[in-house]
Every structure is written in structure tokens, then in C-alpha cells.
Amino acid sequence: MLKIGITGGIGVGKTMVTRVFALLGVPVYDSDARAKWVMHHNEALRQELLSTYGPETFTETGELDRVYVASQVFNNPQKLAQLNSLVHPHVRNDFEAWAASHADKAYVLKEAALMYESEAWKQMDQIITVFAPLEIRIKRLLLRDTHRTEADIKAIIEKQLSEEEKISRAQHVVYNDDQQPLIPQVLKLHEQFLTANS
């Protein structure tokens, strides 16, 4: 089974691309959603988070207080790196177990915004980068995340690895630029992955 990573900066439309793959019957691992699940359910990680960020890390009902954790790490690169160093190894293990449960498939997809920063790319056979021009990304995000300003969005984008770097490190690029139709690009990759593993 091939393990295909899919990445790209905020607002490029990774979720839209993975939905097309999912409609083709490809299992998709959403790293962001699974990281939240692991932070809630992995007891070893819960204890690490509590000892690092204090009792406020979880609410009285045992839910992760994401607002509190974000406030601790967002403008502190060292604390953010520390959080990632705690969470990412558990997510890597979770992905391996998940992938093993889909061993009957030709390939699986792992969607991760921080594919390179988390070193998740090392688990992958190939990487797809989804690309969209900056102005399109900002427009999409202003519509989607109505609580964010353009300055907020630009600050997030500046913290992420550049699109040029992501493209240079990927084997495949999907252009989600409102110019090139998305579905034919995904279908072509789907056929390539099936053929590579047949």
C-alpha cells in the first residue's frame, strides 16, 4: 500500500481535494482532526500536556481547552515547538495503526498542513502539494473564517512554510486556482497511484 501525503498552506483547499479522493473510495487521514482526538484520548499525551501547560489545559469535563493552549503557544515559537514535539509522535503512531487497518487498499492519503514541519513526510511514499495564489487564499479565508481579519490571515500564512518550498519538495502539485479544473487533476493522480501499486 502506498502512503500519500497531501499538504499546502491555509486556504489552498486541501479539504476540497481530499473530498474528491474520498469520493473515489480512498481512505483519508485528517491529521488535524486526529491530533485533537489523540490529545483527548491518549492518556500518556494528556499527562504530558498537563505537566507542561498546567491544569487549565483541560476543562472540568475533561475536554482539551484549545483556546487556552493556543494562547500559550501562538506567539511563542519555543512553546509551539514544544507542543508539536509532544503531539506529533503520538499522531505518527496513530497514523501507522490507522494505515495498517486499510492494508487492503492500493493507497491511503494523509492530509497534514504541517507535513514537513512535523516530519510526517518521512512516513510517506509521495507528497501532493495543493497550490492556490495568495489573493485567492485570502479571499476564501475571509469568507470561511469570518472572525479573522486579513491581517490575521497574513500572520498565519507568514508562519507557515512557503508555497515555493512545499512545491519544490513534493512529487505532485494540484492547482486549486479557480483556473484549472480540480477533478481531472485528482483523477489523473488517482490512476497513477492505482497503477503504481498494481
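Above is the first protein from milestone M3; the second protein from the same milestone is given next.
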Amino acid sequence: MRRVTPAFVLLFLSPAICGAGLWDLIRSHRELEVITVTEVSTESGFRPAASRDQPHYYVAASLGYRDLGGQIAGFKQPPTELVLRLISAELAKQGYLPSTSRSGPPTLLLCYTWGTLNAERFYGPDPSRPPLQVNRGQIVRFLGGHKIGLDQAFFNPLTAPMVGLTANSYDARNLLEVAEEDFYVIVVSAYDLDAALEMRRKPPLWTTRIAAPSLGFSLADVMPAMLAIGGQQFGRETPRPVWINADDKFTPNVKLGELQLVEYLKSDPLPVTDASETKVEKKP
């Protein structure tokens, strides 16, 4: 009788693994996919994106690592100092520079966070039935689904299209499919500094969300590529989600020592306020 190893059985019985790309796991190789969306506020006043020739100076607050979806035990977080330097380095490449005694006055308050947005699955009493993902709408919204027709009405049971009559675009179908996976995420939001200091409640000038399916990768390894690809959209409205498959040719080799644009980032402490202890409620 042919013997089946327990590991092989577990591989096929685990719904989380099967639903997240079994074939990629078997092949032990998977291309990194990065999905980026930037939304520019129409209420807070238009402000052109920064550039190296016309930089914007900022002060920053870090919300630290967050689990925005389901939590997975034993996850290893990258060092906070490394993450802050990677984010600051990519911001500098795009013309967003931290305000110091050697710079111009700050006009922006930047807030950023990073972590995971994992699928939350409900396992019913019948083990033969696949689990139900309860936060698919949350992931679709994070990935910018509303820009390609997957708005709130799509997930409302009273207004959702009838089964068999839905005419989704190619991009919408792909986004719905990938939204079943677990993600690593980075979020950077820019606020008007004067309004923030005066405690005026205004929406961010812009928010950039960067996501990459996490299966087969560690956050510390893929974060440089996520920022190199998604950071190009800082402060720039994306009419639709920007979806890039990053093969070996696209994977960047990030060396912080080459940041000639802001040499003081090499050794000086980053002027970033730690706000990671602030409680942030999950949005449904």
C-alpha cells in the first residue's frame, strides 16, 4: 500500500493554504505582486505631489505595526527602526523630506503604519464545507475596489447584483479573487500640518495604501520592494489600483547608504513621533 505522509495530508486539508495558492507553494516560487492605491482628498484643498526639485517637508508620527485583519500566531515583526528608515528613504526619493534644523519649514504631518491584513475565516460545524471569509469586503476596499466598480453597494445584501447577472470587469474579477488571500500592508497618510496643530478635523490630503499577498514571503524581505514600487504613487491620485507583478528584474536592492539626497538619514535619529500605543479601531 502506498504510504501518504502526514505533512502531505495536512497540506491538502488546510483550507487556509489551499485557498491562498497551493500550486505556488508546491512550486516553491511565487512572483511578488504589489497593489497600490492613492486617494487625494477634495475637501482638504489640492496640493501638488512633491518632487526632488520641489520637495515638501514634514514631521511624522508612526502608528507602528498593526494587524488590520485576522491575526496569525507566531508572526515575526521586522524591527521598527528598519521599517521607519525604509519608509523615510522612499519618501525622500519622491521629494518628501523630514524637517530638521537644516531644512525648510514643515507643511505636512505624515502618519504611517504597516503590518498585515489577513483574511478572517469562519469555520462552521460541517468540516466538509469550505470556511466563509468574513472580511472580503474590507480587503477589497483597502485595495481600492471602489475605483473599479466594487463599491459598498456591491457587498450590501440588499443592493448586491444578482448571482449570474453580474458583469464585472477583468480588473474587478482579479481583485475579488486576490482578496481571498492574506496581505502585508503599508499605509502613509499626509495631513495639513497647520490644521493638525490647530486641532481642526480635516481628512488627509492624500493616503497611499500598498499591499502585497504574503504567502511565501516575509514582511522584512518584501517591504523594500513594496515601497520601491508603491512609493512612486505617494501624493499622486491613482484612477484605479496599480497592480504590478514584481519578478526578479523588478526586485530592488535597497542600500540606505546611497541616499545622497538626505545624507543626515544615514546616522541621525529619524524625527518620527511614536504613536504606536494609540488604539485604532478596525473599520468594518
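Note on the second protein: The chain has nine helices and ten strands.
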